[in-house]
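Structure ticket #2291
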Amino acid sequence: MELDIVIRETTKEDFDIVSRFIELVDNDFCPSLSLRGGGILERVENTLATADSNYLVAQLRESGPSDELKGSIAMVGCTRKWQSEYGTYINFFATHPSFRRYGIGNLLHASLEQKLIEEGFKKIYLCTWSGNKRAMRFYEKLGYRIYSIILNDRGEGIHTFNYSKKLTSLKPQNNIR
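Resolution: structure written out below.
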């Protein structure tokens, strides 16, 4: 499938789109983002209101008039200056269920990394949980390494895996299969 997409940073005007997208994938997270302190709306509001946080969104160039997501097919949230002046943290990463397995996550992640490198950041962090094997494989293929595991952090037998990666120059990726 050939997709005509654009990757852009969100603005405060994208509040509804970002919130709806996160609501769409909410049950993919453990625990669901809606059940965490403040819920989805507060999470989005805080991210969009903070100078060092934002989302990158992959959108179809042409979306239908009734598309509440305005063609949004993947999104990554990032907090800059996390733990240090040169560190960043991915606080959200998801692809629309209908668009998974097309390489969009790889493209979006490469765009985020390139942007962060251009801004002078040196390291990127994220976390996932033991039951999210697909995400663990995805991050490890991208070069992330586990630096700590918090046992039973998300419930009995559900562990949090903390990952990090040193940012280095990338080759541009622009093909989606």
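Closing remark: The mean pLDDT is 92.
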